[in-house]
Amino acid sequence: MQLPQAFIDKYTNLLGDEAPAFFASLDQDVEHGFRLNPLKAKYQDVALDLHHPVPFVQDAYYGTVSGKSLAHQAGYVYSQDISAMYVAEVAAAQPGERVLDLCAAPGGKSTQLAAQLQNQGLLVSNEINTKRARILAENMERIGATNVIVLNEDPANMEQYFPAYFDKIVVDAPCSGEGMFRKDHNAVTYWHEHYPAECAVRQKNILNSALKMLRPGGQLVYSTCTFAPEEDEQIAAWLLATYPELEMVAVPKVAGMTPGQTAFADNDSEMTKAVRMMPHHFQGEGQFVAKFQLAQTAPELAPVPTTKKKKRRGKQARGKSNSLSKEQLALWEEFKQSFFMDRGGQKFSTNNLRLNGNYLYYYDASWPDIDQMKYVRPGILLGEFKKHRFEPSYALALAVQPAEIQAKLDLDESEWRQYVGGNTVQYTGPSQPNGWYLLVCAGKPFAMGKLVNGIIKNFFPKGLRF
Ligand SMILES: C[S@@+](CC[C@H](N)C(=O)[O-])C[C@H]1O[C@@H](n2cnc3c(N)ncnc32)[C@H](O)[C@@H]1O
Protein backbone atom coordinates (compact mmCIF):
# COMPACT_ATOMS: atom_id res chain seq x y z
CA MET A 1 0.00 0.00 0.00
CA GLN A 2 1.27 3.47 -0.88
CA LEU A 3 1.22 5.46 2.37
CA PRO A 4 1.47 9.27 2.39
CA GLN A 5 4.98 10.45 3.28
CA ALA A 6 3.59 12.64 6.09
CA PHE A 7 1.97 9.53 7.61
CA ILE A 8 5.24 7.58 7.38
CA ASP A 9 7.19 10.42 8.95
CA LYS A 10 4.65 10.88 11.73
CA TYR A 11 4.52 7.24 12.81
CA THR A 12 8.25 6.71 12.37
CA ASN A 13 8.66 9.46 14.90
CA LEU A 14 5.88 8.25 17.24
CA LEU A 15 6.57 4.52 17.17
CA GLY A 16 10.37 4.48 16.91
CA ASP A 17 11.70 0.89 16.67
CA GLU A 18 8.22 -0.51 16.16
CA ALA A 19 7.50 1.61 13.09
CA PRO A 20 8.76 -0.88 10.42
CA ALA A 21 6.61 -3.71 11.84
CA PHE A 22 3.66 -1.32 12.05
CA PHE A 23 3.96 -0.22 8.40
CA ALA A 24 4.46 -3.82 7.25
CA SER A 25 1.33 -4.95 9.09
CA LEU A 26 -0.79 -2.52 7.08
CA ASP A 27 -0.17 -4.68 4.03
CA GLN A 28 -1.13 -7.92 5.75
CA ASP A 29 -4.52 -9.62 5.65
CA VAL A 30 -6.87 -8.99 8.50
CA GLU A 31 -8.56 -11.73 10.53
CA HIS A 32 -12.38 -11.69 10.12
CA GLY A 33 -14.97 -12.32 12.78
CA PHE A 34 -18.66 -12.59 13.52
CA ARG A 35 -20.94 -12.56 16.54
CA LEU A 36 -23.96 -14.74 17.17
CA ASN A 37 -27.15 -13.10 18.38
CA PRO A 38 -28.43 -14.37 21.74
CA LEU A 39 -31.72 -12.51 21.24
CA LYS A 40 -32.81 -15.38 18.99
CA ALA A 41 -34.00 -18.70 20.37
CA LYS A 42 -31.44 -21.52 19.94
CA TYR A 43 -29.05 -18.95 18.55
CA GLN A 44 -26.07 -21.29 18.49
CA ASP A 45 -27.93 -23.63 16.16
CA VAL A 46 -26.36 -22.19 13.00
CA ALA A 47 -24.59 -23.76 10.04
CA LEU A 48 -21.31 -21.99 10.81
CA ASP A 49 -17.91 -23.09 12.07
CA LEU A 50 -17.97 -22.30 15.82
CA HIS A 51 -14.66 -23.98 16.63
CA HIS A 52 -12.69 -20.74 16.93
CA PRO A 53 -14.23 -18.49 19.58
CA VAL A 54 -12.84 -15.01 20.21
CA PRO A 55 -11.86 -15.45 23.85
CA PHE A 56 -12.47 -11.88 24.99
CA VAL A 57 -15.91 -11.23 23.43
CA GLN A 58 -19.17 -12.95 24.30
CA ASP A 59 -20.63 -15.09 21.48
CA ALA A 60 -17.89 -14.07 19.02
CA TYR A 61 -15.95 -16.28 16.59
CA TYR A 62 -13.18 -16.00 14.03
CA GLY A 63 -14.34 -16.60 10.47
CA THR A 64 -16.48 -15.18 7.71
CA VAL A 65 -20.21 -15.35 7.09
CA SER A 66 -22.04 -14.92 3.82
CA GLY A 67 -24.55 -12.05 3.79
CA LYS A 68 -26.73 -14.37 1.74
CA SER A 69 -26.99 -17.15 4.28
CA LEU A 70 -30.08 -18.02 6.30
CA ALA A 71 -28.25 -17.29 9.57
CA HIS A 72 -27.39 -13.79 8.37
CA GLN A 73 -30.73 -12.90 6.79
CA ALA A 74 -32.68 -14.11 9.83
CA GLY A 75 -30.50 -12.04 12.18
CA TYR A 76 -28.62 -14.85 13.93
CA VAL A 77 -25.23 -13.43 13.05
CA TYR A 78 -23.44 -10.10 12.58
CA SER A 79 -20.08 -9.89 10.78
CA GLN A 80 -17.69 -7.62 12.63
CA ASP A 81 -14.01 -6.83 12.93
CA ILE A 82 -12.42 -8.48 15.97
CA SER A 83 -11.11 -5.19 17.43
CA ALA A 84 -14.40 -3.36 16.91
CA MET A 85 -16.15 -6.06 18.95
CA TYR A 86 -14.21 -5.05 22.02
CA VAL A 87 -15.82 -1.60 22.27
CA ALA A 88 -19.30 -2.75 23.29
CA GLU A 89 -17.73 -5.53 25.36
CA VAL A 90 -16.05 -2.79 27.38
CA ALA A 91 -19.32 -0.84 27.64
CA ALA A 92 -20.95 -3.98 29.13
CA ALA A 93 -24.56 -2.80 29.13
CA GLN A 94 -26.68 -4.47 31.81
CA PRO A 95 -30.30 -5.56 31.30
CA GLY A 96 -32.62 -2.71 32.33
CA GLU A 97 -30.16 0.13 31.65
CA ARG A 98 -30.74 3.13 29.43
CA VAL A 99 -28.03 3.06 26.80
CA LEU A 100 -27.16 5.51 24.03
CA ASP A 101 -25.05 4.65 21.00
CA LEU A 102 -24.47 8.11 19.62
CA CYS A 103 -22.63 7.39 16.34
CA ALA A 104 -24.19 4.07 15.61
CA ALA A 105 -24.37 3.18 11.89
CA PRO A 106 -24.15 0.59 10.51
CA GLY A 107 -24.82 -0.95 13.92
CA GLY A 108 -21.86 -3.08 14.98
CA LYS A 109 -21.83 -1.73 18.53
CA SER A 110 -25.60 -1.26 18.72
CA THR A 111 -26.39 -4.85 17.80
CA GLN A 112 -23.99 -5.98 20.51
CA LEU A 113 -25.38 -3.56 23.11
CA ALA A 114 -28.90 -4.76 22.29
CA ALA A 115 -27.77 -8.35 22.89
CA GLN A 116 -26.32 -7.35 26.27
CA LEU A 117 -29.57 -5.63 27.28
CA GLN A 118 -31.57 -8.83 26.57
CA ASN A 119 -34.55 -6.68 25.56
CA GLN A 120 -34.71 -5.07 29.02
CA GLY A 121 -34.18 -1.32 29.37
CA LEU A 122 -33.78 0.93 26.37
CA LEU A 123 -31.21 1.36 23.62
CA VAL A 124 -31.26 4.59 21.64
CA SER A 125 -29.19 4.12 18.49
CA ASN A 126 -28.44 7.37 16.74
CA GLU A 127 -26.84 8.14 13.40
CA ILE A 128 -26.50 11.64 11.98
CA ASN A 129 -26.32 10.56 8.32
CA THR A 130 -29.79 9.73 7.02
CA LYS A 131 -28.75 7.08 4.52
CA ARG A 132 -26.61 5.35 7.11
CA ALA A 133 -29.38 5.68 9.71
CA ARG A 134 -31.63 3.61 7.44
CA ILE A 135 -29.00 0.88 7.19
CA LEU A 136 -28.68 1.01 10.97
CA ALA A 137 -32.45 0.60 11.31
CA GLU A 138 -32.38 -2.41 8.98
CA ASN A 139 -29.65 -4.06 11.02
CA MET A 140 -31.45 -3.40 14.30
CA GLU A 141 -34.61 -4.83 12.78
CA ARG A 142 -32.74 -7.91 11.59
CA ILE A 143 -31.44 -8.79 15.03
CA GLY A 144 -34.97 -8.53 16.40
CA ALA A 145 -34.37 -6.38 19.49
CA THR A 146 -37.65 -5.08 20.94
CA ASN A 147 -36.27 -2.19 23.03
CA VAL A 148 -34.55 -0.01 20.44
CA ILE A 149 -35.32 3.44 19.06
CA VAL A 150 -33.34 4.51 15.97
CA LEU A 151 -32.80 8.25 15.68
CA ASN A 152 -31.32 10.32 12.87
CA GLU A 153 -30.13 13.33 14.83
CA ASP A 154 -27.24 15.67 15.30
CA PRO A 155 -25.99 14.95 18.85
CA ALA A 156 -26.27 18.68 19.66
CA ASN A 157 -30.04 18.50 19.03
CA MET A 158 -30.46 15.56 21.36
CA GLU A 159 -29.08 17.22 24.50
CA GLN A 160 -32.27 19.04 25.42
CA TYR A 161 -34.41 15.91 25.14
CA PHE A 162 -32.24 13.56 27.17
CA PRO A 163 -30.72 15.64 29.99
CA ALA A 164 -28.69 13.36 32.30
CA TYR A 165 -30.80 10.46 31.03
CA PHE A 166 -28.51 7.59 30.09
CA ASP A 167 -26.69 5.07 32.29
CA LYS A 168 -24.20 4.31 29.51
CA ILE A 169 -23.16 6.14 26.38
CA VAL A 170 -20.96 4.81 23.60
CA VAL A 171 -19.28 7.36 21.34
CA ASP A 172 -17.69 5.40 18.51
CA ALA A 173 -16.56 8.60 16.93
CA PRO A 174 -16.15 9.54 13.29
CA CYS A 175 -12.37 9.68 12.90
CA SER A 176 -9.51 9.79 10.42
CA GLY A 177 -9.90 6.02 10.02
CA GLU A 178 -6.20 5.13 9.91
CA GLY A 179 -7.04 1.79 11.46
CA MET A 180 -9.09 0.94 8.39
CA PHE A 181 -6.25 1.41 5.87
CA ARG A 182 -5.61 -2.31 5.89
CA LYS A 183 -9.20 -3.28 5.12
CA ASP A 184 -10.03 -0.40 2.84
CA HIS A 185 -7.00 0.84 0.92
CA ASN A 186 -9.14 3.67 -0.41
CA ALA A 187 -9.31 5.16 3.09
CA VAL A 188 -5.70 6.33 2.61
CA THR A 189 -6.82 8.77 -0.08
CA TYR A 190 -8.88 10.80 2.45
CA TRP A 191 -5.96 11.18 4.80
CA HIS A 192 -3.91 14.36 5.04
CA GLU A 193 -1.59 15.74 7.65
CA HIS A 194 -4.21 17.97 9.29
CA TYR A 195 -7.06 15.48 9.12
CA PRO A 196 -6.64 14.07 12.67
CA ALA A 197 -6.73 17.59 14.15
CA GLU A 198 -9.89 18.39 12.16
CA CYS A 199 -11.52 15.18 13.37
CA ALA A 200 -10.57 16.02 16.95
CA VAL A 201 -12.65 19.20 16.83
CA ARG A 202 -15.71 17.21 15.79
CA GLN A 203 -15.02 14.53 18.40
CA LYS A 204 -14.93 17.15 21.17
CA ASN A 205 -18.27 18.58 20.02
CA ILE A 206 -19.86 15.13 20.02
CA LEU A 207 -18.44 14.36 23.46
CA ASN A 208 -19.69 17.65 24.91
CA SER A 209 -23.18 16.66 23.79
CA ALA A 210 -22.77 13.10 25.08
CA LEU A 211 -21.79 14.30 28.55
CA LYS A 212 -24.94 16.37 28.86
CA MET A 213 -26.94 13.19 28.34
CA LEU A 214 -25.03 11.05 30.85
CA ARG A 215 -26.51 10.68 34.31
CA PRO A 216 -24.34 11.21 37.40
CA GLY A 217 -22.72 7.85 38.09
CA GLY A 218 -23.07 6.86 34.44
CA GLN A 219 -20.31 5.59 32.14
CA LEU A 220 -18.99 6.76 28.81
CA VAL A 221 -17.04 4.64 26.35
CA TYR A 222 -15.08 6.54 23.71
CA SER A 223 -13.56 4.74 20.75
CA THR A 224 -12.00 5.41 17.38
CA CYS A 225 -10.56 3.29 14.62
CA THR A 226 -7.51 5.47 14.20
CA PHE A 227 -3.95 5.50 15.54
CA ALA A 228 -3.73 9.29 15.73
CA PRO A 229 -2.87 10.50 19.25
CA GLU A 230 -4.80 13.72 18.53
CA GLU A 231 -8.01 11.67 18.35
CA ASP A 232 -7.15 9.06 20.96
CA GLU A 233 -5.09 9.81 24.09
CA GLN A 234 -5.28 13.56 23.56
CA ILE A 235 -9.08 13.45 23.45
CA ALA A 236 -9.15 11.29 26.58
CA ALA A 237 -6.82 13.75 28.35
CA TRP A 238 -8.95 16.68 27.15
CA LEU A 239 -12.05 14.99 28.61
CA LEU A 240 -10.38 14.62 32.01
CA ALA A 241 -9.21 18.23 31.96
CA THR A 242 -12.55 19.63 30.81
CA TYR A 243 -14.77 17.52 33.06
CA PRO A 244 -13.17 17.09 36.49
CA GLU A 245 -16.19 14.96 37.49
CA LEU A 246 -14.96 12.29 35.06
CA GLU A 247 -12.43 9.64 35.86
CA MET A 248 -10.96 6.95 33.69
CA VAL A 249 -11.80 3.31 34.28
CA ALA A 250 -9.10 0.79 33.38
CA VAL A 251 -9.99 -1.24 30.30
CA PRO A 252 -8.77 -4.86 30.62
CA LYS A 253 -6.03 -5.71 28.14
CA VAL A 254 -5.96 -9.13 26.59
CA ALA A 255 -3.09 -10.63 24.62
CA GLY A 256 -1.91 -8.28 21.90
CA MET A 257 -3.68 -5.18 23.19
CA THR A 258 -1.42 -2.36 24.33
CA PRO A 259 -2.09 0.38 26.89
CA GLY A 260 -2.85 3.92 25.81
CA GLN A 261 0.42 5.83 25.51
CA THR A 262 1.25 8.38 28.18
CA ALA A 263 3.83 9.94 25.87
CA PHE A 264 1.07 10.80 23.38
CA ALA A 265 -0.72 13.02 25.92
CA ASP A 266 1.79 15.10 27.87
CA ASN A 267 2.82 12.11 30.00
CA ASP A 268 -0.63 11.79 31.52
CA SER A 269 -0.30 8.45 33.34
CA GLU A 270 -4.08 7.93 33.31
CA MET A 271 -3.77 7.08 29.63
CA THR A 272 -2.50 3.59 30.41
CA LYS A 273 -6.09 2.80 31.46
CA ALA A 274 -7.15 3.04 27.81
CA VAL A 275 -6.37 0.38 25.25
CA ARG A 276 -4.84 0.46 21.80
CA MET A 277 -5.18 -2.29 19.26
CA MET A 278 -2.29 -1.95 16.87
CA PRO A 279 -2.13 -4.16 13.77
CA HIS A 280 1.45 -5.30 14.37
CA HIS A 281 0.44 -6.67 17.80
CA PHE A 282 -3.24 -7.54 17.42
CA GLN A 283 -5.17 -9.54 14.86
CA GLY A 284 -8.02 -7.05 14.17
CA GLU A 285 -8.14 -3.54 12.74
CA GLY A 286 -6.68 -0.55 14.57
CA GLN A 287 -8.82 0.59 17.48
CA PHE A 288 -8.61 2.81 20.55
CA VAL A 289 -10.98 2.39 23.52
CA ALA A 290 -11.24 4.48 26.68
CA LYS A 291 -13.82 4.24 29.45
CA PHE A 292 -14.91 6.98 31.84
CA GLN A 293 -17.08 7.17 34.92
CA LEU A 294 -19.01 10.32 35.81
CA ALA A 295 -19.00 10.92 39.58
CA GLN A 296 -22.22 10.03 41.36
CA THR A 297 -22.16 13.50 42.92
CA ALA A 298 -21.51 15.32 39.63
CA PRO A 299 -23.87 18.19 38.93
CA GLU A 300 -26.05 17.48 35.94
CA LEU A 301 -24.14 18.76 32.97
CA ALA A 302 -27.16 19.35 30.78
CA PRO A 303 -28.81 22.74 30.52
CA VAL A 304 -32.33 22.82 31.91
CA PRO A 305 -34.46 23.17 28.78
CA THR A 306 -35.95 26.65 28.85
CA THR A 307 -36.83 27.25 25.24
CA LYS A 308 -39.91 25.83 23.60
CA LYS A 309 -39.23 22.52 21.97
CA LYS A 310 -38.65 22.77 18.26
CA LYS A 311 -41.23 21.72 15.73
CA ARG A 312 -41.07 18.18 14.40
CA ARG A 313 -38.52 17.95 11.69
CA GLY A 314 -37.80 15.73 8.74
CA LYS A 315 -39.79 13.41 6.57
CA GLN A 316 -39.79 10.53 9.03
CA ALA A 317 -41.11 12.76 11.79
CA ARG A 318 -44.23 13.73 9.89
CA GLY A 319 -47.62 12.35 10.84
CA LYS A 320 -48.53 13.01 14.42
CA SER A 321 -48.60 9.89 16.53
CA ASN A 322 -52.14 9.20 17.61
CA SER A 323 -54.31 6.48 18.98
CA LEU A 324 -55.91 3.76 16.91
CA SER A 325 -59.44 3.96 15.56
CA LYS A 326 -61.93 1.34 16.68
CA GLU A 327 -61.55 -0.46 13.38
CA GLN A 328 -57.75 -0.46 13.58
CA LEU A 329 -57.80 -1.76 17.10
CA ALA A 330 -60.19 -4.55 16.09
CA LEU A 331 -57.98 -5.47 13.11
CA TRP A 332 -54.89 -5.60 15.33
CA GLU A 333 -56.67 -7.69 17.99
CA GLU A 334 -57.95 -10.05 15.31
CA PHE A 335 -54.44 -10.49 13.94
CA LYS A 336 -53.00 -11.01 17.42
CA GLN A 337 -55.56 -13.67 18.21
CA SER A 338 -54.82 -15.76 15.13
CA PHE A 339 -51.05 -15.16 15.08
CA PHE A 340 -49.77 -15.38 18.65
CA MET A 341 -50.20 -18.18 21.16
CA ASP A 342 -52.41 -16.93 23.96
CA ARG A 343 -53.26 -13.80 21.88
CA GLY A 344 -49.74 -12.55 22.59
CA GLY A 345 -50.27 -12.33 26.36
CA GLN A 346 -48.85 -9.02 27.57
CA LYS A 347 -46.66 -8.67 24.51
CA PHE A 348 -47.42 -5.63 22.35
CA SER A 349 -50.31 -4.63 24.60
CA THR A 350 -52.60 -1.75 23.63
CA ASN A 351 -50.90 0.68 26.07
CA ASN A 352 -47.69 0.30 24.12
CA LEU A 353 -48.98 0.91 20.63
CA ARG A 354 -48.33 4.00 18.60
CA LEU A 355 -49.72 4.93 15.24
CA ASN A 356 -47.74 7.03 12.75
CA GLY A 357 -49.85 7.58 9.67
CA ASN A 358 -50.97 4.06 8.85
CA TYR A 359 -47.96 2.42 10.47
CA LEU A 360 -48.39 0.67 13.77
CA TYR A 361 -45.41 0.60 16.12
CA TYR A 362 -44.67 -0.97 19.45
CA TYR A 363 -43.47 1.85 21.66
CA ASP A 364 -43.20 1.10 25.36
CA ALA A 365 -45.18 3.64 27.40
CA SER A 366 -42.20 4.10 29.74
CA TRP A 367 -39.89 5.29 26.95
CA PRO A 368 -39.16 9.00 26.48
CA ASP A 369 -41.15 11.18 24.14
CA ILE A 370 -39.32 11.40 20.82
CA ASP A 371 -42.03 13.25 18.94
CA GLN A 372 -39.82 16.31 18.50
CA MET A 373 -36.89 14.34 17.17
CA LYS A 374 -36.01 13.00 13.77
CA TYR A 375 -36.35 9.26 13.96
CA VAL A 376 -36.15 6.32 11.62
CA ARG A 377 -37.65 3.64 13.88
CA PRO A 378 -39.70 4.74 16.89
CA GLY A 379 -39.79 1.20 18.28
CA ILE A 380 -40.75 -1.97 16.39
CA LEU A 381 -42.79 -1.65 13.26
CA LEU A 382 -45.64 -4.13 13.78
CA GLY A 383 -47.36 -3.54 10.49
CA GLU A 384 -49.44 -1.27 8.32
CA PHE A 385 -53.17 -0.63 8.14
CA LYS A 386 -54.42 -0.84 4.59
CA LYS A 387 -58.06 -0.53 3.52
CA HIS A 388 -59.98 -2.56 6.15
CA ARG A 389 -57.06 -4.89 6.77
CA PHE A 390 -53.81 -5.16 8.70
CA GLU A 391 -50.58 -6.22 7.04
CA PRO A 392 -47.93 -7.42 9.54
CA SER A 393 -44.35 -6.28 8.97
CA TYR A 394 -41.11 -8.03 8.19
CA ALA A 395 -39.70 -6.46 11.39
CA LEU A 396 -42.33 -8.27 13.46
CA ALA A 397 -41.31 -11.62 11.97
CA LEU A 398 -37.73 -11.00 13.10
CA ALA A 399 -38.72 -9.82 16.58
CA VAL A 400 -40.66 -12.92 17.67
CA GLN A 401 -39.61 -16.40 18.75
CA PRO A 402 -41.17 -19.49 17.11
CA ALA A 403 -42.49 -20.79 20.45
CA GLU A 404 -44.77 -17.78 20.94
CA ILE A 405 -46.41 -18.04 17.54
CA GLN A 406 -49.19 -20.39 16.54
CA ALA A 407 -49.57 -19.33 12.89
CA LYS A 408 -46.29 -20.50 11.40
CA LEU A 409 -45.21 -22.49 8.38
CA ASP A 410 -42.02 -24.50 8.10
CA LEU A 411 -40.13 -24.10 4.85
CA ASP A 412 -37.02 -25.92 3.73
CA GLU A 413 -33.84 -24.19 2.64
CA SER A 414 -34.66 -24.24 -1.08
CA GLU A 415 -38.09 -22.72 -0.34
CA TRP A 416 -36.38 -20.10 1.86
CA ARG A 417 -34.07 -19.26 -1.05
CA GLN A 418 -37.06 -18.98 -3.38
CA TYR A 419 -38.87 -16.66 -0.95
CA VAL A 420 -35.92 -14.33 -0.21
CA GLY A 421 -35.45 -14.11 -3.98
CA GLY A 422 -38.89 -12.48 -4.17
CA ASN A 423 -40.88 -15.49 -5.42
CA THR A 424 -44.08 -17.12 -4.25
CA VAL A 425 -43.79 -20.60 -2.75
CA GLN A 426 -46.11 -23.55 -3.26
CA TYR A 427 -46.94 -24.71 0.25
CA THR A 428 -46.70 -28.49 0.54
CA GLY A 429 -47.14 -28.97 4.31
CA PRO A 430 -50.28 -29.99 6.24
CA SER A 431 -53.41 -28.10 5.18
CA GLN A 432 -53.78 -24.65 6.75
CA PRO A 433 -56.41 -21.92 6.47
CA ASN A 434 -55.64 -18.83 4.39
CA GLY A 435 -54.04 -15.95 6.28
CA TRP A 436 -50.81 -14.51 7.64
CA TYR A 437 -48.04 -16.82 8.83
CA LEU A 438 -44.60 -16.56 10.32
CA LEU A 439 -42.25 -18.32 7.91
CA VAL A 440 -39.66 -20.47 9.61
CA CYS A 441 -36.67 -22.31 8.13
CA ALA A 442 -34.51 -24.64 10.26
CA GLY A 443 -36.17 -23.20 13.37
CA LYS A 444 -35.40 -19.61 12.32
CA PRO A 445 -38.21 -17.12 11.70
CA PHE A 446 -37.23 -15.22 8.57
CA ALA A 447 -40.29 -13.36 7.18
CA MET A 448 -44.06 -13.03 7.13
CA GLY A 449 -45.97 -14.71 4.33
CA LYS A 450 -49.61 -14.76 3.30
CA LEU A 451 -51.06 -18.15 2.49
CA VAL A 452 -53.73 -18.00 -0.21
CA ASN A 453 -55.12 -21.34 -1.42
CA GLY A 454 -51.86 -23.23 -0.99
CA ILE A 455 -49.57 -20.49 -2.33
CA ILE A 456 -47.42 -18.37 -0.02
CA LYS A 457 -47.56 -14.87 -1.48
CA ASN A 458 -44.32 -12.97 -1.31
CA PHE A 459 -44.02 -10.09 1.16
CA PHE A 460 -40.23 -10.12 1.48
CA PRO A 461 -39.03 -6.46 1.43
CA LYS A 462 -38.03 -5.56 -2.12
CA GLY A 463 -34.77 -3.85 -1.15
CA LEU A 464 -33.55 -6.92 0.74
CA ARG A 465 -34.24 -9.61 -1.86
CA PHE A 466 -31.41 -11.75 -3.15
C1 LIG B 1 -16.99 4.88 13.29
S1 LIG B 1 -18.51 5.18 12.57
C2 LIG B 1 -19.61 4.31 13.60
C3 LIG B 1 -19.58 2.82 13.48
C4 LIG B 1 -20.63 2.14 14.34
N1 LIG B 1 -20.53 2.53 15.73
C5 LIG B 1 -20.60 0.64 14.23
O1 LIG B 1 -20.07 0.00 15.12
O2 LIG B 1 -21.15 0.09 13.28
C6 LIG B 1 -18.86 6.84 13.00
C7 LIG B 1 -20.23 7.34 12.62
O3 LIG B 1 -20.35 8.69 13.07
C8 LIG B 1 -21.16 9.38 12.16
N2 LIG B 1 -20.92 10.85 12.28
C9 LIG B 1 -20.30 11.66 11.40
N3 LIG B 1 -20.32 12.92 11.85
C10 LIG B 1 -20.97 12.92 13.02
C11 LIG B 1 -21.34 13.94 13.94
N4 LIG B 1 -21.00 15.20 13.76
N5 LIG B 1 -22.03 13.55 15.02
C12 LIG B 1 -22.36 12.26 15.22
N6 LIG B 1 -22.04 11.27 14.38
C13 LIG B 1 -21.35 11.61 13.29
C14 LIG B 1 -20.77 8.81 10.80
O4 LIG B 1 -21.80 9.01 9.86
C15 LIG B 1 -20.51 7.36 11.13
O5 LIG B 1 -21.65 6.56 10.85
TrEMBL record:
Superkingdom: Bacteria
GO MF annotation terms: RNA binding; RNA methyltransferase activity; S-adenosylmethionine-dependent methyltransferase activity
InterPro entries: Methyltr_RsmF_N (IPR031341), MeTrfase_RsmB-F_NOP2_cat (IPR049560), MeTrfase_RsmB-F_NOP2_dom (IPR001678), Nol1_Nop2_Fmu_2 (IPR027391), Nop2p (IPR011023), RCMT (IPR023267), RsmF_methylt_CI (IPR031340), SAM-dependent_MTases_sf (IPR029063)
Matches recorded under Pfam families: Methyltr_RsmB-F, Methyltr_RsmF_N, Methyltranf_PUA, RsmF_methylt_CI
Disulfide bond is among the record's keywords: no
Catalytic residues (UniProt): C225 (nucleophile)
Compositional bias ranges of the Basic residues kind: 307-318
Keyword Nucleotide-binding: no
Positions of S-adenosyl-L-methionine binding: C103, A104, A105, P106, G107, G108, K109, E127, D154, D172
Family as reported in the entry's similarity comment: Belongs to the class I-like SAM-binding methyltransferase superfamily. RsmB/NOP family.
PANTHER family attached to this UniProt entry: 28S RRNA (CYTOSINE(4447)-C(5))-METHYLTRANSFERASE-RELATED (PTHR22807:SF30), NOP2 YEAST -RELATED NOL1/NOP2/FMU SUN DOMAIN-CONTAINING (PTHR22807)
Name of the protein this chain belongs to: 23S rRNA m(5)C methyltransferase
Source organism: Ligilactobacillus saerimneri 30a
